[in-house]
Amino acid sequence: DSISENDKQEFYDIIHSNSNRLLDLIDEIFDIAQLESGLISLQKEPVQLNELLTGLITHFNIEKGALNKEHIAIRLNLANKDRQFTMLTDGRMLRQTLTNLIENALKYTHEGSIETGYDFNGNKLRFFVRDTGIGFPQEKLDVLFQRFRQNEEDPTRQYGGVGLGRTLSKKYIEIMGGKMWAESTQGNGSAFFFTIPYEALES
């Protein structure tokens, strides 16, 4: 029997999806290797923070449609409402970290909402990504940042992946002079936080 066009399209979609996942994994392994070898260093530049975050929210509000999660609300909470609010930091590392955390939140949230943003904490900015997803047991939180721990110890193993995005994000934040941690209760959502030094532009 010949294969129907619908079946061909389904096979193509599966191959395409798995190929993209493999490429993402290779990129993450390569980035971690470079970080640990000292080949990636902090590159500070003026970053319009609110514009960066607004762009990410716009992207994920489109992306959630492709994941059949149009019903998940993605909200932005900014401590400084000035669209031109600018700071000196590594824009690439910050953008990739937030992207990884929002992607994870969308992956593990089936109902409710996701909220991201920042607030001021002394001379640092504290960023957050909160969701109403599956949540994790308290005793498993440290495992979330360990590479290749997508096994029986990792509460997210059923969702695929190997957790390198979280590992990479934590390393980025440490290079930027900050720290990252998670708070969660199983079945009641999660919140990922990180701080980075706030460095204003010289006037």
Question: What does this molecule look like?
Answer:
By secondary structure, the protein is α+β, with helices and mostly antiparallel strands. The chain contains four helices and seven strands; from the N terminus they run αβαββαββαββ. 39% of the residues lie in helices and 22% in strands. The model has no long low-confidence stretch (mean pLDDT 83). The strands form two sheets. The chain has a five-stranded mixed sheet with strand order 2-4-5-7-6. A two-stranded antiparallel ribbon has the order 1-3. The protein has two domains: 40 residues; 155 residues, Heat Shock Protein 90 (2-Layer Sandwich), CATH 3.30.565. Helix 1 runs parallel beside helix 4, helix 2 packs parallel to helix 3 and helix 3 runs antiparallel to helix 4.
What is the fold's blueprint, element by element?
Layout: H1 5-36, E1 45-48, H2 49-66, E2 73-78, E3 86-89, H3 91-108, E4 113-121, E5 124-131, H4 164-175, E6 179-184, E7 190-197
Parallel strand pairs: 2-4
Antiparallel strand pairs: 1-3, 4-5, 5-7, 6-7
Helix pairs in contact: 1-4, 2-3, 3-4
Span between N and C termini?
73 Å
CATH superfamily of the largest domain: Histidine kinase-like ATPase, C-terminal domain
* SSE arrangement, N to C: HEHEEHEEHEE
How many structurally independent domains? 2
Beta fraction of the residues?
15-25%
Numbering strands along the chain, what is their spatial order in the largest sheet?
A: 2-4-5-7-6
Mean pLDDT: 83
Number of DSSP strand runs: 7
